[in-house]
Amino acid sequence: MGPIDIGGELSGYYTYNANHPHNQTDSGFASSDWGNNLYDFNTQADALDLSFAKLAISHSPDPLGFELDFGFGRTIEAINAGEPTWLGFKYIEQAYMEWKPAKAKGFELDFGKFSTSAGTEAIEEYNNWTYSHSLIFSWAIPYFLVGVRASIPVGKHFTSGFQLVNGWNNVSDDVHSGKTIGLTGALTYTNLTWNVNYHTGPMNQGTNTGFRNLFDTTLLLTPPGKLNGYLNFNYGNNGNSLCSTCTAPATQASASWYGLATAVHVQLNSRWSFASRAEWFDDADGYELARALPTPISNLKGAVAQEVKEATVTAEYKLFEGLLWRGEWRHDWSTYPMFERGMAPISTDESSYSGGNGSTGLPFNNPAGLLGYVKSQNTLTFGLVAFFGPRR
């Protein structure tokens, strides 16, 4: 057996939110009352916070290998918010075995819990161009999968893959008895990488009917020089989706969402780099963003169809190898007033909002104009990211 590799990350941040919302009192994405709404990991507004403290232990397959990543902080709490707390599952990011036979022409088989292959970004901040994660990463794809995955090169430039997993973000498989199938493909050239992911399988509670389908594709351009860029398109659909917060109908025949993201990265010199990202996400049936609605709105309105967009500009300075500082401005806006403004407790009495009694004025500034909901959010984040060891 060859060497054991050890790596890790420590990431913390401070975010100024111009809306000055109050922060969530519990952890994980199950809470909709976030400070920085639409964010997944650096959710706390106007506060210092720990995003991720991670330790990774791995061994490259020869022919057997493994990956074990665990940690604590807001990131791991969000990833495993729906998982059981026993046996330490809530602290594990990845845990899988690898098998790569020497004479199998690059074939590899993995079994366990592994990060999603969809999307452009990774969970760890140091692997991304920006500190905050994109809307597509946060709301349109799974964080992780549990099951079996296999990949094999086909020629010099293409790698195909197959996955058989429990479903989205599901270790214990207590939602249903069905399985999700994933098909992946990667076309790689010197200055271009094109990734395609398709997943399909049941995801509704207590039934194997109503498949969730996900198509995600990314084109990454890395031409010679200092400028890189990517384009990411995402489409998802959930059949027979059950909306527990909807007043009527409780069951939707189908729910769909679409996303498009693009970003550029400029490496000015050995220390300074800049990145910019723009996104559009259409939750036409109010399905994926239902968890992002503050509780008073979801209690009153149920699922709400909306389009959200974000624009992000990030400056990065490498203090030394393994330590990065990032400063980031981000603007989010929606067709629906979903961003909390103000720091006082929110009234759940519908008549307390302007418009009152369920009229079209909801939601919604209160008469004093000091607390309510608005359609946009501006944040300024300063993050410090330390990391060591190999990147896998």
Defining key terms:
mainly beta, 392 residues, 16-stranded antiparallel barrel, 3 helices, globular, Porin, 18 strands, 49% strand, single chain, two-stranded antiparallel ribbon
Note down, in words, how this protein is organized:
This protein has helices at residues 74-79, 135-139, 295-301; strands at 5-17, 47-59, 64-72, 92-99, 108-115, 144-154, 158-165, 180-189, 192-202, 211-221, 227-242, 251-267, 272-283, 306-320, 323-334, 339-341, 372-374, 376-388. The chain has a single domain (5-343, 351-388), classed as Porin. Mean pLDDT is 86; it is low at 26-32, 245-249 and 344-370. 5% of the residues lie in helices and 49% in strands. The protein starts with a strand and ends with a strand. The protein is globular. It has 392 residues and is mostly beta strands.
Task: Explain briefly what this protein structure is.
The chain has 392 residues and is mainly beta.
| Portion in helices | under 10%
**Number of H/I helices:** 3
Q: What is the CATH architecture assignment?
A: Beta Barrel
| CATH C-level name | Mainly Beta
Strand fraction equals over 45%
Distance between the termini: 19 Å
By CATH, the topology is: Porin
The CATH superfamily is Porin
Give the SSE map.
Elements: E1 5-17, E2 47-59, E3 64-72, H1 74-79, E4 92-99, E5 108-115, H2 135-139, E6 144-154, E7 158-165, E8 180-189, E9 192-202, E10 211-221, E11 227-242, E12 251-267, E13 272-283, H3 295-301, E14 306-320, E15 323-334, E16 339-341, E17 372-374, E18 376-388
Antiparallel strand pairs: 1-2, 1-18, 2-3, 3-4, 4-5, 5-6, 6-7, 7-8, 8-9, 9-10, 10-11, 11-12, 12-13, 13-14, 14-15, 15-18, 16-17
